[in-house]
Amino acid sequence: MEPWYSLHWFSPAQWQQFQLAQPLALWLIPAILILFFLRYYLYRHAQQRLNMSLGQLNSPRVRGGRGQTGRSWLSIGRYLLPISVFAGMTCLLVALARPQIIREQRNEQSEGIDIMLAMDVSESMSETDLQPTRLAVARRVAQTFVNNRKNDRIGLVVFAGEAFSLCPLTTDYGLVKQYLSDLNDHMIRTSGTAIGDALARCINRMRDRAVVSADTTQREAEATNVDRTKVIILLSDGDNTAGNLDPITAAKLAKAFGIRIYTIAVGRPVASTANAATVDEGVLKTIATLANGSFFRATDARRLQAIFAQISRLEKAPIRVLVYEDVQDYYRIYIYWGISFLLIALGLKNTIFGNVLED
């Protein structure tokens, strides 16, 4: 930081950094000029003058030499007193305006929400109506969805004829994406599609108030028992053919725990040689309706990506923006300058420059 007596404090670059807390104080500076002008106008005929015979000092030789130079400097010096007074008052008014530098820091905080992804890995998800396969497209789009979330806990449940909790709720998005990349239609050997059991697994994960070991960043939030929004995103062809729990019962249970379910039917509703119907929309629509969610159909990769983007917009946790301001005042520097100029003016008052006989 420059010392107070440095001329740096009057540079335009320095003034561009300042913000004035009381900018109206600067409007008084022109008032000082007006007062000086009124004083000069009102008292210009009332000033006392002393006519003196300077003799040879008025000769042309002397006037053209050192005498003329000395008188010119004396004439200029007469203005030092009012200039010092004006500069001192101006600096004091600048100090009254309180120049300051404000450094602002914004901090965004969000509690986040809990999201469970329920991914169908049954044999029907290997259909190629979505290239290369339904499961491959769903896996890739789900990874993009995870990338776009912030402060949310995400878990993963996979199901075919049985349902397994593959990843607990966590903010370790790298871990979730790794599990998603490993999904294939051979990881569960039991054939069928157990949608009800998959929803039950998701509900158990979300209603458990204990902090899981895989989550290392949300322990404090869980310790304070903060209620978080809970969402299940179910991707399946909707053909429920296995499991011990009816999907409708699971949807009602989710609603009782305040969990919202979004269902996505992956694939085109056309007949297949392996199944009577490739996609069963009825079950997925009923689940979404009972759990206060929404039903979507994804007939291609672009549509599936748009569905995830829509869900991402719908499910956003409120963000608290905290603004920190570091305020540094610099009015003392201009007080020092103002006092210095006024002291100079006081000193000039006791010299020939402040003598009324010189006017």
Your description of this structure?
With 359 residues, this protein is of the alpha/beta class. It has two domains: 7-103 and 328-358, no CATH class; 109-319, 3-Layer(aba) Sandwich (Rossmann fold). 42% of the residues lie in helices and 19% in strands. It is built from 13 helices and nine strands. It has helices at residues 12-17, 28-43, 60-63, 66-77, 80-96, 134-147, 173-181, 195-207, 219-223, 247-256, 281-290, 301-314, 331-349, and strands spanning 19-20, 99-110, 114-120, 153-159, 163-170, 230-236, 259-266, 294-298, 319-329. Strand 7 (259-266), helix 11 and strand 8 (294-298) form a beta-alpha-beta unit.
Total number of β-strand segments?
Answer: 9
Count of all domains: 2
Mean pLDDT: 81
Number of helices: 13
Strand order of the largest sheet: 5-4-3-6-7-8
- What separation lies between the terminal Cα atoms? 43 Å
Radius of gyration: 41 Å
* Main sheet: strands, sense, barrel: 6 strands, mixed
CATH architecture of the largest domain: 3-Layer(aba) Sandwich
Helix percent band: 40-55%
How are helices and strands ordered from N to C?
HEHHHHEEHEEHHHEHEHEHEH
What is the CATH third-level topology name of the largest domain? Rossmann fold
Q: Work out the strand percent.
A: 15-25%
Shape: rod-shaped
CATH superfamily placement of the largest domain: von Willebrand factor, type A domain
Any low-confidence stretches, pLDDT <50, length ≥5?
210-214, 216-225
CATH class of the largest domain: Alpha Beta
Structural class: alpha/beta
